Amino acid sequence: MADLTDAPAIDPANWTCPAPLRDQGVVVMGHGGGGALSAELIDQVFAPAYGNPTLAGLADSAVLELGGARLAFSTDSYVVRPLFFPGGCLGDLAVNGTVNDLAMSGARPAYLSTAFVLEEGVELTVVDRVARALGAAARAADVTVATGDTKVVESGHGDGVYVTTAGVGLVPDGVDIRPQRARPGDAVLVSGPIGLHGVAVMSVREGLEFGVEIASDTAPLAGLVTAMLAVTKDVHVLRDPTRGGLGASLNEIARASGTGVRITERAVPVPDEVANACGFLGLDPLYVANEGRLVAFVPREHADAVLAAMRAHPQGAGAALIGECVAEHPGMVTVATGLGGTRVLDLPLGEQLPRIC
Per residue, what are the HEC states of the chain? Predict the structure, then answer.
């Protein structure tokens, strides 16, 4: 047996862990992942610094009263790597992401601003491709890029191109969509197959091949939301499950509303190629990012009609009812598994794949 008396003392402070530790005094990648670390950063740094009733809702966009109109206002930064991936690129992602954040308040998006941060040395042809994709996506989403800005940083102090977009839109009368409105009995609907964006970006970034090309689902969702609201304005919650995927969005809604959420694993539409890729990489598709999907909480009496309207729209053709909002286990999400058991779907710590949007 080896003599360990002269072995160096074990210092836990020198241990490493693939998941970021939660008591670190510096920013780690997990702070940008849309999970528990992101929530802690907001709660401990930004909310105390900015604290006001408008910000307190922490929805995808803020709804503001201005001059007798109700405006939705949202801003987001996009740092996806690589800049171009199957099904999209940084440019259309920057439009669709902000348009969708506005739509999650029921708004009709109208205007965007855009700010480019360029790294010295990036090829102008790359910047041109991103800008043209952004313009085309804005036209497709029927929004106007009304103002913008450009900054350049020294070589080595960026990653080619970063884009920030902000947007405003009008919220129709009688529409009140926010995570606090989820109620026991609500049906939980998802607009289509999940996980495509995250796996598409990962396949290019890591040079992985899964037998078929997996394309991002990036798309504007305002038209789909309009179709849903045409059935009933009493849609309680809408969320686009981007960073942290469907799992993070359901947890955020459960915690904001103080209700429980119960979903059925087999009811969640996961494409075979996404399931196979996630199985190979040890990922849970419920936590993989999406950029063209929404999750909706709708009163049960309207659920069938809303689901039919979603399926009749191109962006909701694969819509499915995946669960319900319940009074039990408030603030918690549970999953009925395919084996007949139940598991807790917790808020992820960070992002399985950073720099996804």
Answer: CCCCCCCCCCCHHHCCCCCCCCCCCCCCHHHHCCCHHHHHHHHHHHHHHHCCHHHHCCCCCEEEEECCEEEEEEEEEECCCCCEECCEEHHHHHHHHHHHHHHCCCCEEEEEEEEEEEECCCCHHHHHHHHHHHHHHHHHCCCEEEEEEEEEECCCCCCCEEEEEEEEEECCCCCCCCHHHCCCCCEEEECCCCCHHHHHHHHHHHCCCCCCCCCCCCCCCHHHHHHHHHHCCCCCEEECCCCCHHHHHHHHHHHHHCCEEEEEHHHCCCCHHHHHHHHHHCCCHHHCCCCCCCEEEECHHHHHHHHHHHHCCHHHCCCEEEEEEECCCCCCEEEECCCCCEEECCCCCCCCCCCCC
Cα gap 300→120, rounded to integer Å: 54
Question: What was the pLDDT predicted at 44?
Answer: 82
Q: pTM (2 decimals)? A: 0.88
Euclidean distance between CA atoms 239 and 190, whole angstroms: 10
pLDDT range class, residue 33, cuts 50, 70, 90: low
Lookup: tokens for 110: 């109208």
Distances in Å between the Cα of 20 and the Cα atoms of 99, 284, 336 are 31, 18, 29
Taking alpha carbons only, the member of 242, 72, 68 closest to residue 143 is 72
**Six-digit token string for 47:** 């909310």
Q: How many CA atoms lie within 13 A of 144 on its CB side?
A: 5
Tokens linked to 281 = 């990489």
Residue range 62-170, CATH number: 3.30.1330.10
Q: Is the peptide bond before 348 cis (omega within 30 degrees of 0)?
A: no
Residue 18 has pLDDT above 80, yes or no: no
The architecture in CATH of the region 179-344 reads: Alpha-Beta Complex (3.90)
Domains 62-170 and 179-344 share a fold: no
Q: Where are the chain's structural domains?
A: 62-170, 179-344
